[in-house]
Amino acid sequence: MIPRTSQDVKKEFERKGISVASWARANGFETNLVFEVLSGRKKGVRGQSHKIAVKLGLKAGEIIEDHDIATAINM
Q1: pLDDT tens-digit readout, 25-70
Q2: Range of the domain at 37
Protein backbone atom coordinates (compact mmCIF):
# COMPACT_ATOMS: atom_id res chain seq x y z
CA MET A 1 0.00 0.00 0.00
CA ILE A 2 1.26 3.45 -0.88
CA PRO A 3 0.67 5.82 2.05
CA ARG A 4 -1.76 8.67 1.43
CA THR A 5 -1.09 12.27 2.29
CA SER A 6 -3.06 14.19 4.90
CA GLN A 7 -4.52 16.23 2.06
CA ASP A 8 -5.73 13.03 0.37
CA VAL A 9 -7.44 11.94 3.59
CA LYS A 10 -9.08 15.34 4.10
CA LYS A 11 -10.37 15.31 0.52
CA GLU A 12 -11.79 11.83 1.02
CA PHE A 13 -13.60 12.95 4.17
CA GLU A 14 -15.04 15.88 2.21
CA ARG A 15 -15.98 13.70 -0.77
CA LYS A 16 -17.84 11.28 1.51
CA GLY A 17 -19.38 13.95 3.73
CA ILE A 18 -17.68 12.63 6.86
CA SER A 19 -16.31 14.94 9.52
CA VAL A 20 -12.99 14.24 11.20
CA ALA A 21 -14.80 14.33 14.55
CA SER A 22 -17.35 11.70 13.52
CA TRP A 23 -14.60 9.43 12.14
CA ALA A 24 -12.64 9.84 15.36
CA ARG A 25 -15.67 8.96 17.52
CA ALA A 26 -16.57 5.97 15.33
CA ASN A 27 -13.04 4.63 15.72
CA GLY A 28 -12.68 5.36 19.44
CA PHE A 29 -10.11 8.15 19.10
CA GLU A 30 -9.98 11.62 20.60
CA THR A 31 -10.88 14.19 17.94
CA ASN A 32 -7.98 16.49 18.85
CA LEU A 33 -5.47 13.68 18.42
CA VAL A 34 -6.80 12.86 14.94
CA PHE A 35 -6.44 16.53 13.96
CA GLU A 36 -2.88 16.55 15.34
CA VAL A 37 -1.97 13.49 13.25
CA LEU A 38 -3.56 15.00 10.12
CA SER A 39 -1.69 18.27 10.65
CA GLY A 40 1.64 16.54 11.23
CA ARG A 41 2.03 17.77 14.82
CA LYS A 42 1.91 14.13 15.91
CA LYS A 43 4.03 11.86 13.75
CA GLY A 44 2.17 8.61 14.40
CA VAL A 45 5.21 6.83 15.76
CA ARG A 46 3.57 4.93 18.63
CA GLY A 47 0.41 4.52 20.66
CA GLN A 48 -2.88 6.04 19.58
CA SER A 49 -1.28 8.36 17.02
CA HIS A 50 0.29 5.31 15.31
CA LYS A 51 -3.09 3.58 15.21
CA ILE A 52 -4.71 6.68 13.74
CA ALA A 53 -2.04 7.08 11.05
CA VAL A 54 -2.33 3.43 10.03
CA LYS A 55 -6.17 3.46 9.97
CA LEU A 56 -6.17 6.62 7.87
CA GLY A 57 -3.63 5.12 5.46
CA LEU A 58 -1.02 7.78 6.22
CA LYS A 59 1.60 5.14 6.92
CA ALA A 60 2.11 1.44 6.49
CA GLY A 61 2.10 -0.40 9.74
CA GLU A 62 0.49 -2.92 11.99
CA ILE A 63 -1.95 -2.19 14.78
CA ILE A 64 -1.33 -4.17 17.93
CA GLU A 65 -4.13 -4.13 20.48
CA ASP A 66 -3.19 -3.40 24.09
CA HIS A 67 -3.93 -6.94 25.25
CA ASP A 68 -1.45 -8.30 22.63
CA ILE A 69 1.48 -5.99 23.39
CA ALA A 70 3.29 -8.48 25.62
CA THR A 71 3.51 -11.02 22.82
CA ALA A 72 3.82 -8.65 19.85
CA ILE A 73 7.57 -9.12 19.49
CA ASN A 74 8.59 -12.75 19.36
CA MET A 75 12.30 -13.19 19.81
Answers
A1: 999 999 999 999 999 999 999 999 999 999 999 999 999 988 888 8
A2: 6-59
